[in-house]
Design brief:
Elements: E1 2-6, E2 10-15, E3 22-27, H1 29-40, E4 45-52, H2 56-67, E5 75-77, E6 85-91, E7 94-100, H3 113-121, E8 125-129, H4 130-134, H5 138-153, E9 157-161, H6 172-184, E10 188-189, H7 193-200, H8 205-214, E11 219-222, E12 229-233, E13 236-240, H9 254-269, H10 272-286
Parallel strand pairs: 1-4, 1-8, 2-6, 4-5, 8-9, 9-10, 10-11
Antiparallel strand pairs: 2-3, 6-7, 11-12, 12-13
This protein binds adenosine-5'-diphosphate.
Adenosine-5'-diphosphate is lined by residues 192, 223-226, 229, 242, 244-245, 248, 251, 254-255, 258, 279-280, 283-284, 287.
Amino acid sequence: MHVLAIGECMAELAPTKQDGEFKLGFAGDTFNTAWYLARTAPDIEVSYLTAVGDDAISQKMRTFMKGSRINDAHVQVIAGESVGLYLIHLNNGERSFSYWRSNAAARRLAVDPVALERAMDEADLIYFSGITLAILDPKSRENLFNALRHARASGKTVAFDTNLRPRLWPTVKEMKATIMQAAVLSNIVLPSYDDEAAWFGDSNARATRDRYAKIGVAQIVVKDGAKPVVYQQAGKRGEVIVEPATDVVDTTAAGDSFNAGVLAGILRQNDIVAGIKQGCRLAGQVVRFTGALIPVDLDQKVARS
Ligand code: ADP
């Protein structure tokens, strides 16, 4: 079993206890899912497709990927460019973010259609998100859609987290249209209810599921924080209760880690409910710690806090 995740990994500067000092890390929505899959599913091979520069920080990012059991064979290197960066501010326990990503090499990850098809050829499941789409120019987006169509036609599974981020799009209209286009191409769609409510006006998580079901998506999993996860698989519909964490510290990457559990469940057993339960266990740990990448063990206990 082989998963190919596609998107942007950024350098992260997170505040330390020492005022004015920051710790360097690496994170990004689809990358986080790849990282949790690589860490918790040793039976699944994980590759990441992106573009980086040829500078020291790009090298460090690749070293981090390889050290995390993520295959970097499909990381394209663009001479003279670099990776995106974000910095976390902490103000009375509240996190806010500053981004420097508009010139990131990752924006060119889908310039080469041959590289896309070659990477997808090796995979059983291809995973991407609304953020992956938001950073691409229209031609690259078309390349990605064509490659995904081809992958679907040759029997591969395509999984998509809508991850609506209007600030990354020229207009909300374009965001919504492109998201729905991508959903049509996907076998699995993994939206988060609060974002979908804000931009598509869904009145509850079931309405979100039904909107994607209506355009023909077979498998849908709607996340809704500590509220029940709403799903559909092969015409079967239902909800899975979430055990609320009592000590939530930071929900960064809750959805990303949850997706890793769902994808592992679908790949291993074609069982969406088993996957949702696995995703809930994993995300239920992740929200108890600060940061995107929490070093959970294979039994989903946190190795260090
Ligand atoms: P996103 O990060 O995409 O907004 P959500 O906040 O909806 O995602 O959460 C994703 C998953 O993380 C939920 O389906 C649930 O399994 C888990 N989760 C989120 N918040 C909590 C919580 N307070 N207690 C336990 N699990 C949670």
